[in-house]
Write a structure and sequence with these properties.
Helix 15 packs antiparallel against helix 18. About 45% of the residues lie in helices and about 15% in strands. The protein is elongated. Strands 2, 3, 5, 6 and 7 form a five-stranded mixed β-sheet that branches. Strands 10-11-12-13 form a four-stranded antiparallel β-sheet, sandwiched between helices. It has a two-stranded antiparallel sheet with strand order 1-4. The protein is α+β, with helices and mostly antiparallel strands and about 600 residues long. The longest helix has about 30 residues. The chain is built from 19 helices and 15 strands. A hairpin with a 6-residue loop joins strand 8 and strand 9. The chain starts with a helix and ends in a 14-residue tail after the last helix.
Length: about 600
């Protein structure tokens, strides 16, 4: 269960979480009260947007509040509560209604502060606060720039009042009184305790990317009888005690703020992940990294495919992997996916993901792997030097994430989207080739599963057609190296969609290129002609008239494999020629200058 896993993780990282019912906020003003409580000064801690790194941010008392007569927070609140500053209109005018509401809120705030001061057991800082809010607050001169919505914190000397243990204790009791309901069996911890009426803390505003307006998000929220089972509202059907509810939401906010456990999708939603027992290892961190190292990926694949020895088999990994995908619909969180699997299963799925899309790079002699965001962006628009930012289809990155983590097929829409961009851009690059391999390797038809390098033994007509087109292009490159418009520029899309007519025509036209090669490059003519006829003989009697989307994918991969093989052979031949040329004799030393 999601809430159980969140509270379990909260116990592990208790030292990293704020105090119960506390949340980090930016402090705009500091009310510095003198030790005797008879005077105070207001210190400005506002910063501009360019100076956000200098902002004063601290965990302070917090609980969700709504309605018109909202109650105060303890000590740290808005200037309307702390100082009685009324809300002002855009033109600076203040209505009598706003003045009355500011006065009401300030009185409620002062009563809560005095209640804490009375229960603090004579703490000097508490006595100073009591004196100030009893007699000294009226004499405080407000500087310019104080707005009703500004957050104000209080300190006495060097002591932040909201950090005192007595404040944390009273605030916990206050929240339980506000959010309390009946006593019953907690769904999370399984014990009879005081249950929450509503979740005390939502997910922070802006923490979850969304295409609409950003709001705070509630994980469990039933406001009307039509939404709840048997017409019951609030948390009646989801009994959660104060401790479990507060900790679960604190952990959720911790995760959405953590760079190590969070992946924000560029268009919509966020993905959170953690493990049950240990700190997340490099295999998991690597997958969520924007630029994983190829050596780390290869090590992961080897570790998952190598049969463990007897000693390793005895050390069973009992750790678990948890992953939560969240979206936002108005003010409610949407749980799009929840993964709870053993850690070895998660690592195996990730290793399989990389193995399914790796693309062999003959220039470096290694397989290339790509981060998931780049695979999604390869379905976007090419702008000449790079993919257009934010041109990836909406939601595709999140769908590919689910495919990788679950070990399932990618979304069905990915292949048509990718083929559309290949035809439109006339471009097949390594990221697009990697995504094509992934889509085909996860097909239920074994015929679609293709190797990362050239498969000389394949008899698939679509794959052979792609190879044939690549060789025809190589023939043109050798015969007319300076041509402006190549076969790919003019005929690639037609050959992918309807290879029979296009390839027969290009095969017949290649005779003119071979005639030129016979005169200028006889060795290249012999090698290319042999290669061309070898492939053409395998498919000439079965050239398909039209190709399906899957067959077009096999065509493009066959083309890329053969094209890369031809370029690699050409480079190898060039290196052999350079190696056969005797080295120039070293120039004789100038004895006169010596």
């Amino acid at each position: 269960m999601l809430l159980q896993r969140l509270t379990e993780y909260g116990e592990r990282i208790a030292g990293e979480l704020p105090a119960e019912f506390y949340r980090e906020k930016q402090i705009h003003w500091v009310l510095d009260i003198a030790a005797d409580g008879l005077s105070a000064r207001l210190l400005n801690r506002k910063v501009s947007r360019r100076q956000r790194d200098q902002a004063l941010i601290m965990p302070v008392p917090y609980v969700q509040r709504s309605g018109t007569k909202v109650p105060p927070y303890l000590l740290v609140d808005t200037a309307e509560f702390v100082l009685g500053v009324p809300k002002a209109a855009k033109d600076g005018s203040v209505t009598e209604k706003d003045r009355d509401e500011a006065s009401r809120r300030h009185d409620a705030y002062r009563d809560l502060v005095l209640r804490w001061a009375s229960s603090a057991g004579g703490e000097p800082a508490a006595e100073a606060a009591r004196t100030f809010f009893t007699a000294g607050a009226a004499a405080l001169d407000l500087p310019e720039g104080v707005e009703a919505k500004d957050t104000v914190a209080i300190m006495v000397g060097t002591c932040w009042l909201h950090q005192l243990g007595s404040v944390q204790q009273l605030w916990g009791e206050e929240v339980r009184a506000r959010k309390g309901g009946r006593v019953g069996l907690c769904l999370v911890c399984g014990e009879y305790r005081a249950l929450l009426a509503t979740i005390p803390e939502p997910v922070k505003k802006g923490a979850i990317p969304t295409v609409g307006g950003s709001n705070e998000g509630q994980l469990v929220s039933i406001n009307t009888a039509a939404q709840g089972r048997e017409g019951l509202i609030k948390l009646v059907n989801t009994p959660v005690c104060h401790g479990c509810g507060g900790r679960a939401m604190a952990v959720l906010n911790h995760l959405v703020a953590s760079d190590r456990h969070r992946r924000r999708f560029r268009d919509d939603g966020v993905l959170l992940w953690w493990t049950k027992q240990t700190e997340p290892d490099s295999a998991l961190a690597m997958f969520f990294d924007d630029q994983p190292e190829a050596a780390d990926i290869e090590h992961l694949i080897d570790s998952m495919t190598t049969t463990p020895g007897p000693a390793a088999a005895e050390r069973a990994d009992t750790d678990a992997f948890y992953c939560l995908s969240l979206g936002l619909n108005n003010a409610r969180l949407v749980v799009r996916d929840w993964i709870d699997v053993p850690l070895p299963v998660a690592k195996t799925n990730l290793a399989t993901w990389y193995a399914d899309h790796g693309v062999w790079d003959g220039w470096t002699g290694r397989t290339r792997y790509f981060p998931l965001w780049q695979l999604a962006l390869s379905c976007g628009r090419w702008q000449g030097e790079r993919y257009a930012p934010d041109s990836a289809p909406h939601g595709l990155e999140a769908e590919l994430f689910q495919s990788a983590l679950h070990g399932t097929r990618p979304p069905a829409r990915a292949l048509p989207l990718l083929l559309q961009r290949v035809h439109a851009d006339q471009r097949v690059d390594p990221p697009r080739l990697a995504l094509l391999r992934l889509l085909l390797n996860r097909s239920p038809d074994p015929q679609d599963h293709l190797m990362p390098q050239l498969d000389q033994d394949s008899t698939d007509p679509a794959y052979l057609c792609g190879r044939l087109f690549a060789v025809l292009e190589s023939v043109q490159d050798e015969a007319l190296p300076d041509i402006n418009t190549t076969l790919r520029d003019k005929y690639f899309s037609a050959a992918v969609a309807a290879p029979s007519i296009t390839l027969r025509r290009l095969f017949a036209d290649s005779g003119a290129h071979f005639k030129r090669l016979r005169r200028d490059k006889p060795a290249a003519r012999y090698a290319l002609e042999k290669r061309l006829f070898e492939i053409y003989s395998k498919v000439s009697d079965d050239l398909p008239g039209h190709l399906t989307d899957v067959q077009q994918g096999r065509f493009i991969i066959g083309y890329s494999h053969q094209r890369h093989e031809d370029l690699a052979r050409k480079q190898a031949a060039k290196e052999r020629r350079l190696a056969s040329v005797p080295a120039q004799a070293a120039p004789a030393q100038d004895t006169a200058s010596a």
